[in-house]
Amino acid sequence: MQVSKRFLALLDQQLAQFTDRPDLRALVVYAALPGDNGRPTLMAIGHWPAALALRANGSDGADDPADAESDTRRWLALRDGSLLLGALRVDADQLPWPPALEARLEATARCLTEALRLDMDQQQLGRELARREDQLRLLVHQLRNPLAALRTFGQLLRRRLDGDEANLSLVDNLLHEQGQINRYLDAIEAIDQGGAAPSLSASGGTTPLLLPPGLQGDTPQPLAEILQPLLERAAATAKLQGRPWYGPGPSLPPWQGDGSAVAEILANLLENAFRYSRSGGPIGLLCQPCPAAAGAITLAVWDGGPEIPAEERTRIFERGQRGSTGAGRPGSGLGLALGRELAAQLGGSLRLQTPPAALDPHNPDLPGSGNAFCLQLP
Predict the structure, then answer these.
(1) 163: in domain
(2) How far is CA 156 from CA 141, 167, 171, 172, 373, in A?
(3) Is residue 125 within 8 Å of 160, Cβ to Cβ?
(4) How far is the C-alpha of 323 from the C-alpha of 362, rounded, in Å?
(5) Which of 105, 263, 277, 331 is the most exposed place for a label (fewest CB within 10 A)?
(6) Which residues contact 124 (CB under 8 A, 6 or more apart)?
(7) 331: nearest Cα among 342, 323, 343, 340
């Protein structure tokens, strides 16, 4: 069994504390290795004093570590429950040990047991992480092939539909979504490159952004350009689900900003609406200026109910938390939490408004029962 350098450093410190005990001749720490016959084999991994010579096989040259106790030798097991992790061998001038020495030796054995257990757990986690990273790297590589094929078939289909504007837009949307997936794969590969990968955190913060590196836009985009693929996707989803869809209309404010960030937040809100709202109920996207702040806008994704229970309206914005409407359905409970954090980093906010009609009492499309998730942007 391999042990880390940090554990060996701790081991040396623990054994070195006994330099004030002339009645101790030697201390040897062993790690338990699985044997061929099912019984553990002890391998020496540390000793005191430093001049004590250890053979390559881990014994100290006089006796095999598995020998029975002699008149001046005793063993303290390093045991985690029923699992034997190792042993501390104590060679002293006399037995029994003085009470003070016995207490120190037992405390050292407990410390080494816990440190050895943590060291083994850390190494196991490291191996598992390495295995998962290899699998993720392979999956990303393998995903490139079908995505490239989809793009090729999409481009061929677009040529065949030349002049058919109604269907060309569907193919263009497919190609756009394929490009988005490729960008996410690029971001995953960038993360896997370790130190070369861009940080996922906000400046100086520890909270990861909703967007992976490579998807954060530097050039401001017009609102109409940001919303266009989202609206087409939402309209197509509503048609497939057989439910009414209400877009924001052709007149959009002349707002510009981080298109990738805004699109990611809205895409999550729209997906939640289509997934969790009442089957067949209406869904829409409302865009309106904020009267309290010049130049600010609100983008509200709304549905026709039922309303999220009052006791859940704060909790659903916490990481890993989901409302009762999402019970039994796929989801991670991260979208709203990360969306709110990213909105704050953009200088805006994300909140829940019930019912949607409260956003604009004069708008006949907004239902009097339901939910509206409002993204306010400066």
Answers:
(1) no
(2) 24, 13, 10, 12, 39
(3) no
(4) 30
(5) 331
(6) none
(7) 323
- In the chain, how many domains are there? 2
> What is the Cα–Cα distance from 8 to 206, expressed in whole angstroms?
32
Chosen domain end from 68, 100, 126: 126
Q: How many of the other CB atoms lie within 10 Å of CB of 371?
A: 26
Same structural domain, 114 and 240: no
CA 193 vs. chain centroid, Å, equals: 17
**pLDDT per residue over 101-131, tens digit each?**
999 999 999 999 999 999 999 999 999 998 9
Number of H helices, E strands in the chain: 6, 11
Cα–Cα distance between 177 and 15 in angstroms, integer? 62
**Domain of residue 337, residue span:** 203-377
Question: What per-residue confidence (pLDDT) applies to 295?
Answer: 84
Q: Give the pLDDT band of residue 178 (cuts 50, 70, 90).
A: confident
| Host H or E run for residue 339 | helix 335-345
CB 126 within 8 Å of CB 132: no
Distance (Å, whole) CA 356 – CA 285: 11
